[in-house]
Write the structure tokens for this entry.
Amino acid sequence: MNIFAALKQEEAKLRKQADKVRQQLDALRGAMKILGGKGDSAKPIGKKKRVMSAAARAKIGKATKARWAKFRAAKAKGKR
């Protein structure tokens, strides 16, 4: 069997699995809708994105620049 035929066979198998998963998702969403859930999977589930103030970002940036300056100074000192 050549490689192309094997890849086509694998593709068909994966498509069949994907169809089965889609059917399960549809059934699950239907059950959620019946039970009163919104069934809307567009909204992410989990923690909200953390927002950092401009002052905190500036402080972190300043500290990072200081660390890199220290690293570069040590590296330059070691080479000479």
Observations:
- The CA atoms of residues 36 and 46 lie 20 Å apart.
- Residues 3-34 form the longest helix (32 residues).
- The two ends are 63 Å apart (CA to CA).
- The chain has a mean pLDDT of 86.
